[in-house]
Amino acid sequence: MENKAYRILIADDEPDILEILSYNLAKEGYEIIQAKDGNEAIEKAKLVQPDLMILDILMPYKSGMEVCQILRLQPEFKDTLIIFLTALNDEAIHIRGLENGADDYINKPISPKVVTSRVNALFRRIKKSTEEDKALAVGNVIIDPIKFSVKVSGEEVMLAKKEFELLYLLASQPGRVFLRNEILNKVWGADVIVGDRTIDVHIRKIRQKMNLDCITTVKGVGYKFEFD
User: Fold this and answer.
1) pLDDT digits (tens, 9 = 90+) for 64-106
2) Dist. CA 26–CA 4, nearest whole Å
3) CA dihedral in degrees (93, 95, 96, 102; nearest 10)?
4) Residues in Cβ contact with 29 at an 8 Å cutoff, skipping those fewer than 6 apart
5) How far apart are CA 145 and CA 191, in angstroms?
6) In the Cβ-directed half-sphere of 22, how many Cα atoms lie within 13 Å?
7) How far is CA 69 from the centre of its chain?
8) Response regulatory domain spans which residues (predicted)?
9) Residues sharing a CB contact under 8 Å with residue 48, sequence separation 6 or more, in sequence order
10) Facing residues of 34 across strands?
11) Residue whose C-alpha is closest to residue 152's, from 143, 140, 144, 161
12) pLDDT reported for residue 116
């Protein structure tokens, strides 16, 4: 199967969830690695370098949020996809997770079919990133989609995967206003359900990391990339 090249680390302290997710994703052809707590998740992630991690937020020793924060600080996990599993239907928790680098959220109780669909959707977006994409140079900003690198005045800026994809989309047509729904479909995909604040959180992080006010909010409409 074509998915065999992808490794998925699933970390959850509930054995039933580990087994059902592992079974369903293995049927799709993915290589599965399991972890029962936050410490084991970090240890195994460093060992196997997974392409995607499914992290339960409430785990022993270290929460999924802490695991995400720790690993995102290391360059080798900058582009690793991360999905949170949570029984906490709290917008503040969701926003915090997105700010710390999550790519998606799935609420418990889980549906194996939903999880599989979300995972497949994320990997489909990776496959769409081909070498036909060209580096963008706008002002003193250079965005290279092959290397997933952003440089401002020659200095590299570390962006999470979704932050990078969002910036690349906006910068691909400077001055054009991208509608919110259009951004969600092109960056997250129609198969992925994310909250209303998702784009706002990512835009704020991009502005902070680049230390540039080059993304303009068009109130009630969307966003555009401008560079004086």
Assistant:
1) 999 999 998 888 888 889 999 988 776 777 777 777 778 888 8
2) 9
3) 110
4) 1, 2, 3, 4
5) 23
6) 15
7) 13
8) 7-123
9) 7, 9, 33
10) 10
11) 140
12) 93
Q: What pLDDT, on a 0 to 100 scale, did the predictor assign at position 192? A: 62
SS (H, E, C) the chain: CHHHHCEEEEECCCHHHHHHHHHHHHHCCCEEEEECCHHHHHHHHHHHCCCEEEEECCCCCCCHHHHHHHHHCCHHHCCCEEEEEECCCCHHHHHHHHHCCCCEEEECCCCHHHHHHHHHHHHHHHHHCCCCCCCEEECCEEEECCCCEEEECCEEECCCHHHHHHHHHHHCCCCCCEEHHHHHHHHHCCCCCCCCCHHHHHHHHHHHHHCCCCEEEECCCEEEECCC
151 Cβ contact partners less than 8 Å away, ≥ 6 residues apart: 141, 142, 157
Contact 30, 3 (CB under 8 A): yes
The pair of structure tokens assigned to 182 is 């259009």
What is d(CA 66, CA 168) in angstroms, rounded to the nearest whole number? Answer: 28
Q: Please give the torsion angle defined by the CA atoms of residues 75, 58, 30 and 160, in that order, rounded to the nearest 10 degrees.
A: -30
Q: Which amino acid is at 134?
A: K
Residue with tokens 């599965």: 32
